[in-house]
Amino acid sequence: MTALALVAALLGAPKAAAFSISSPQGVDVASWQHPGGAAINWREVSASGHRFAFVKATEGIGYVNPFFVADSKQAQNAGMLIGSYHMARPNSSATAQAAEYAAALATQPQPSLPPVLDIEYAENLGPAQLSAWVREFVTEIERLTGRKPIIYTYRYFWQENMANTSEFSDYPLWLAAYENRPPSDIPGGWNHMTFWQRADNGVVPGMVTVSDVNLFNGSEQQLNDFSAGIDVNLGEVLTAGIDLDAIGGRVAELEALGNNNRELVGAILAVAAGALAIGALVAVAQSQGIDLGPATELVDRVRGLIASGDLPVPDLQTMLQTGEYTIGDLLILLENAQHFAEQIG
């Protein structure tokens, strides 16, 4: 333990009051943000107020993001704190995936944020099998890197596919929750988020496509301390509202995305069953507060998933039956289904 870490441990790290306009914001990127090989202007990203960047490193076995090293170096050179993540594919060895991720991390400039396990695909594994897989991965990546990893997930996946286990609540949480206020219904026994992915359609200067945008639950100094391995007490569930427009990065529909998704899910299932014309889905989405453009994008995604046979009907039926998930949770599920069908990127 360093002298600085010892002082923090003895005195107690300050708590973050809430996500606020001073909360460091950041992006996470993969090859999707490089359509046609287009570059990201990381100096523009940094100048727009983004303080950290998670760059996809690996997925499953045998895939390394071809932009991982360049994005990491350029983001760091632009003054940003960098991180990385591994996209889990639980149908193959967790130990082997951790090893490939650790090897990729050895090529990333330092210092960096802790490694991240992105777990949002079940690949036909049940909750007990998935928990065992996650346990194996986080244990191995911590052994290989000496750092406690962050777990990235979203509510529907953790509650339904992981049976809402609280086994991993000692690991930092990065939660995807597309809505206008920090969510209070955090799964898995966690009492706070370390990072909050608040939207997937942020318009960020320096990028030719939209990007996932995130907030850190604390101050910039606490973010630096967290990256350095110093214990940071980020407090408990945060419910205070914040002005997301003031934080930067235009994001549409967040108020609507926090609404219950039951009516929209029911309409999608009706379309899949042939009981509703897909064109009518636009009107249903608009009735839920989604503007015409995003509503049309949603319908196009549903149409494509139906055509390819990849619409996640059992998951949609679960969402309809439970009635406790948001439109944002639905969009994450549909986006994941599309990406899974398209494989890696």
Automatic annotation (TrEMBL):
SUPFAM superfamilies: (Trans)glycosidases (SSF51445). It comes from the Bacteria. Belongs to the glycosyl hydrolase 25 family. The lineage of its organism: Bacteria, Bacillati, Actinomycetota, Actinomycetes, Mycobacteriales. InterPro entries: GH, Glyco_hydro_25, Glyco_hydro_fam25_subgr. Pfam families: Glyco_hydro_25. GO terms for molecular function: lysozyme activity. GO terms for biological process: carbohydrate catabolic process; cell wall macromolecule catabolic process; peptidoglycan catabolic process. Keywords: Glycosidase, Hydrolase, Signal. PROSITE patterns: GLYCOSYL_HYDROL_F25_2 (PS51904). This is Hydrolase. Residues 1-18 form the signal peptide. PANTHER family: LYSOZYME.
